[in-house]
Amino acid sequence: MQGTLRPVKSVTIVLNDPGYGTDRPYNALRLASALQEGDPPCRVRVFLMGDAVNVGLRGQSAPSDDLNLGRRIEGLISRGAEVAACGLCLELRGLAGASWIEGVRIGSMAELASWVATSDQVLTF
User: Fold this and answer.
1) Structure pTM?
2) Of 40, 53, 85, 113, which has fewest CB within 10 angstroms of its CB?
3) DSSP strand E in the chain: where?
4) Spatial distance between the Cα atoms of 105 and 61, rounded to a whole number of angstroms
């Protein structure tokens, strides 16, 4: 018996890799944008962990806006995405007092657990 596929309504994306060390954060944020703009659009939440916390820092410099992960985060937030950076990961990297992109919040493992438990899909990069 063939079942009916239920459209994805909410997606949590967990980033672990450093912002500019690999292509994974760039590709994850491209996917997040495509999910927001899809038909039907998805609710997107992005959690920055480990070395990916630098993706939420203000004042990033990249050769173009397309490659600037900070601009991609700003775009996601402007379209309703929630973005949080792991508070413990920030402390371990000496970034707790850093300047964050507007809309990026300091998050916790409890918050990530809640996002995972209430998401239709969870992706890790």
Assistant:
1) 0.91
2) 40
3) 10-15, 43-48, 82-86, 104-107, 121-124
4) 21
